[in-house]
TrEMBL record, chain A:
<keyword id="KW-0808">Transferase</keyword>
<feature type="domain" description="HPt">
    <location>
        <begin position="1"/>
        <end position="101"/>
    </location>
</feature>
<feature type="domain" description="Histidine kinase">
    <location>
        <begin position="260"/>
        <end position="508"/>
    </location>
</feature>
<dbReference type="GO" id="GO:0006935">
    <property type="term" value="P:chemotaxis"/>
</dbReference>
<dbReference type="GO" id="GO:0000155">
    <property type="term" value="F:phosphorelay sensor kinase activity"/>
</dbReference>
<dbReference type="Pfam" id="PF02518">
    <property type="entry name" value="HATPase_c"/>
</dbReference>
<feature type="domain" description="CheW-like">
    <location>
        <begin position="510"/>
        <end position="642"/>
    </location>
</feature>
TrEMBL record, chain B:
<dbReference type="Pfam" id="PF00072">
    <property type="entry name" value="Response_reg"/>
</dbReference>
<keyword id="KW-0597">Phosphoprotein</keyword>
<dbReference type="InterPro" id="IPR001789">
    <property type="entry name" value="Sig_transdc_resp-reg_receiver"/>
</dbReference>
<dbReference type="InterPro" id="IPR050595">
    <property type="entry name" value="Bact_response_regulator"/>
</dbReference>
<protein>
    <submittedName>
        <fullName>Chemotaxis protein CheY</fullName>
    </submittedName>
</protein>
<dbReference type="InterPro" id="IPR011006">
    <property type="entry name" value="CheY-like_superfamily"/>
</dbReference>
<feature type="modified residue" description="4-aspartylphosphate">
    <location>
        <position position="53"/>
    </location>
</feature>
From TrEMBL, chain C:
<dbReference type="Pfam" id="PF01584">
    <property type="entry name" value="CheW"/>
</dbReference>
<dbReference type="InterPro" id="IPR036061">
    <property type="entry name" value="CheW-like_dom_sf"/>
</dbReference>
<protein>
    <submittedName>
        <fullName>Chemotaxis protein CheW</fullName>
    </submittedName>
</protein>
<dbReference type="InterPro" id="IPR002545">
    <property type="entry name" value="CheW-lke_dom"/>
</dbReference>
<dbReference type="GO" id="GO:0007165">
    <property type="term" value="P:signal transduction"/>
</dbReference>
<dbReference type="GO" id="GO:0006935">
    <property type="term" value="P:chemotaxis"/>
</dbReference>
<dbReference type="InterPro" id="IPR039315">
    <property type="entry name" value="CheW"/>
</dbReference>
Amino acid sequence: MNPAAESFVQESRDILEDLEGIVLELEADPSDPKRIDAVFRALHTLKGSGGMFGFATLAAFTHHFESAYERIREGKAAVTPELIQLSLASRDHLERMLDAGPDEDGTPATDPATAELVAKIEAMDNSSAPVSAKAANCACFTITFKPEPTALRNGMRPELLIAELQELGDATVSVSTVDVPLLRDLDPAVCHLSWMIELETAADRDAIDDVFIFASDWQIDVQQVEAGTGSDLPAPASSRAESVADSSKSDTSDAARGAQKTDSVRVPSHRLDELMDQLGELVIAQARLNRISTDLGDAGLSSTAEEIERLVTGLRDATLSIRMLPIELVFGKFRRVVRDLSTELGKDVQLSTLGGETEVDKNVIDSLTEPLVHIIRNSIDHGIESPEERRAAGKADRATVAMRARQAGGEVLISVTDDGKGLDAEAIRARGIERGLIAADQDISEDQLFGLIFEPGFSTAKALSSVSGRGVGMDAVRRVIDDLHGAVEVKSVKGRGTEVTLRLPLTLAIIDGLLVKVAGGPFVLPLSNVEECVELPCDENERQSGRSILRIRDQLVPFLSLDTLFGFDRIESSERRVVITSVEGRRTGLVVDEVIGQYQTVIKPLSLYHRGIEGLAGSTILGDGAVALILDAAAIVRRAQNALKSAA
Amino acid sequence: MSKTILSVDDSKSIRDMIGFTLQPKGYDVIGAGDGLEGIAALKANKVNLVVCDLNMPNMNGLEMVRKVREDRSFDGIPIVMLTTEAQKEKMLAAKEAGAAGWLVKPFDEAKLVSVVNKMIGGAQ
Amino acid sequence: MTDSAETQMVLTFALDGETFAIPVGHVDEIIDPLPITRAPNADAFAPGLINVRGAIAPFVDLRHRLGMRPAEVQEASRVLVLDLVVGGEATKVAMLADDVADITETAVADLEAVPELGVRWPIDLIRGVAKKDGALVIVLDVDAAFAPQNLQ
């Protein structure tokens, strides 16, 4: 090795040694910008000189490592435990590369260990972006900007700037059209719009200013909404000194941050799942305690049991609230979807959202994106007319798709409304008959008719489009919502528009159910699907086969025995009741041997031995220790209706 | 269809550098040696972005920006000026005249790519 | 190939008059029979679920898979709770045994050593045989014997 290369190796070893210390310090205080900078600088030096001294392989590898830290510096990623782990592994790898000496023939070589680390670093880039960045160190900015009138002519693209801002974090974009002149005065090349963006980001003010670097002549206003981002607000000297004096290193940084930032704690979601699990067990144990207390009839015990019940309820509510996230997280993704779709389909559509602050369980949120994409695609593709058709119908050229969320009781209602042409009841009926979903002479309500669009294989689009064709989509919506123990409803007025409403439980971990007995075994029906319980008419009780219909007030409701559906032998019971369920707007009666009452229950997933059985959603342990099966009302009702159809 | 970048520069090495950097990123790159050639190239091709030097013979960058912005058929085509720290005033004048952005020389390939992406949102 | 014999600890239990064994590593606990909740529309091999100390375990019917007639719960009947990996998931599985004999160290010989056994039991469910006090002990292939119907 030549002397220059030797000195490079020596210097690099020193850098790597320092690097290890810095990375470990960073682990204790992941948001320290100074240490992030220090890592970045160390890597930058290695990369820069590596190439000059014949260590091209090392330089190439360092480049990837450096890029990961560049993203963190830019606020696009956060320091995570995985990153620390990977950084240490990469550092060790660099040391091995130094040991191996300069590249043989002066060209970069690749070996599996390097490739593996690079793949991991790159995977990190993709996975850690917005959410972790947001959680690491969040600041809220309100950004308003109005491009110069000539901006569009000069080739400025406000939408690209907005997209850049959206990459920095969670952005809520609204546009102001107040300055748009009347059509006859409108110069399409002049920008009359201004935008307001609420940005929640881990990036700092500089990153936002960078976005507007070439737009310095515009009217731009950037305001930080909440005080407390840490880095630009130094902690009071006294508090820092105190904490250094009396606690360990990681404590000081936490304390210092705690003092200057909002009081939030970042917790891995599996810990919440564990907490939820424990709470589930507690709810079960508490049910058992109630039962024992009732049996014993001891006044002291029963008042203690009641006290514990009250505390458990409070604990449950508090725990559930931790898992709640604002639905805006989902809504936010749709601005782009709507924009792209309307461009693709040549339609002018704006998205409005309302109730984004409504909170839903994290697991529910995670599953919502896909069904909402299907619904919105369907709205824009099939519901919204072309601008010409809209004009002819006396509507504004620009169509509106509105997403609204609100909480009602134990449910969250999410609706997607469009002001398009509405569903064509006759076309749906014809299609339903063609597909064998309804009988040609069947008398069904409009709501039920609209419900058909969620049936597998149903599609009324005349031509298949790349957007929502192929007749998949809406049945996928129902499948996901069923899995979430929710329901889908459609309302539509011809010529006026369509509203699809998803009714979802607030949480998936605990459901309110109706405990019933069928053939001696306990079963739980989700209360969200239960409308009422009625007596089983005596004469109907006698009927063993054929189609059974019950008149409830003015409506005829078909019903069926669950024991028949389950293939269980019927047992004698004087307590037989009909549970009237409502699934997708259709009412079906399910006969049970006994209704025990309402029961709040923790859903335990089924093992692989039983997971595939249609109609079972999970299991739970009752107060007396028995295992009860939780029924999937939608699947049960589908099954029941198939059975009723074949019996008819 | 890939986007077309017009590099207007009297230095062949700068034009080549822009070509060698942007072509692998999926852009088509065409070149012009001064402002007059640049405007001719704009008329003859569907150009998505112009990267233009300030100092050039025949028609300099500032004049070219003014000419381009006078012609409404070139509306919406952004012009990025190549400048040095010392030319700040000229650069501001170009901005005033309708340039969309700038790149300070010396610049590296990454900086060029990032400014082009920022201006027109990627090659596709 | 008797020379491939290996020694291991197994739990022996009775089913329909025969002695079966499974490696003790798979046995979590042995408990008294508990009520079983029938799962509607389940296959005959996994007819229900039981509560094992607060955890819900699928209840499997090994007799059915071995082609034996169904048994009543007797005085000596015990529920074996097994720790298995089913379809990649760690799962507790419960089964009923007519009687639990004991835990013993045994040398497992290849099934070919006793060819006539293969006629009586589905051979793919069995890992081998061992001799204990002069009687034959059938050592189960745990993965195959307890695989869910749909994953078999």
